Amino acid sequence: MKNYLAITAVLLYAASASYGSLIPLGAVPSSGSGLGAVTTLLTFTSPGSSSSETGCVGAGAGGTVITGSSVCPSATFAGGNEQAINNVFSTANAGFTNFSNFQIVFNASEPGSAQDITLNNLALTIYSSAGVLQQTHTLASAYVIANAFPGVGNAGYGFMLDATEAAQANALLTANPGAVFYIGAAANATNATGGLETIFARTTAATAAIPEPSTLFMLGSGLVLLSLSSFGRLRSKR
User: Fold this and answer.
1) pLDDT digits (tens, 9 = 90+) for 104-128
2) Domain ranges of the chain
3) How far apart are CA 150 and CA 33, in angstroms?
4) Are 101 and 94 in contact (CB under 8 A)?
């Protein structure tokens, strides 16, 4: 009973948590990322002659997919321009280990010669298996994309949580071992020209940190001094 109350407290606390912590990764060209080839979270488009678009997707109980204003994480997002293919990403999916290796990718598909689009806001949302919003992670400021790489699936622009907020999200997993959480998304974009925008989820392999040149120099110098010291001791023994 105590464990249940502790878990409930964590979930209730997390439900009001919101962070401006999505880090832009820049262009992440990748083949095979068209609709149906990846876990597409959200598809949305600008209606009619409008150049603005907004969409939201979230989870109901058991991971039921819900779109529209009811799952927009804040008044910043209105929703309503969602198209046919929308999903939520389960933390039970193969390849997911924690939020440090999770990314969402915005893939614009502007028609004709249109190249640029502005992502005014983007949110990664995390829901409990009961469909309760736990955390919201958003961009700190608008992100201008000068080259949208026309065509669905050609390339995209990646975003991930910074280290601090990835730890916050991972705390949900630690506090609720075995629990499944669902990840949704929300987005506002302007300067859109009627193309079909998508946001998909993906996991990435952890990469080892590459030492700075100064660190390598210090390490190399230390090894040289250690070798000379050993050689000196060896000679003194003779």
Assistant:
1) 999 888 666 667 899 999 999 999 9
2) 2-207, 212-238
3) 13
4) no
3-state helix, strand, coil in the chain (%, to 5): 25, 35, 40
Which amino acid does the sequence have at 171? A
How is residue 48 annotated by DSSP? Answer: T
- Identity of the amino acid at 113: S
Per the document, the length of the chain is 238
HSE of 150, CA atoms in CB hemisphere, 13 A: 11
Locate all alpha helices (DSSP H) within the chain, ordered by sequence.
Answer: 2-14, 163-175, 213-237
For residues 148-172, b (16+ Cβ closer than 10 Å) or e, as one string? bbbebbbbbbbbbbbeebbebbeeb
Closest by CA to 145, choosing from 236, 27, 60, is 27
* pTM across the whole model: 0.76
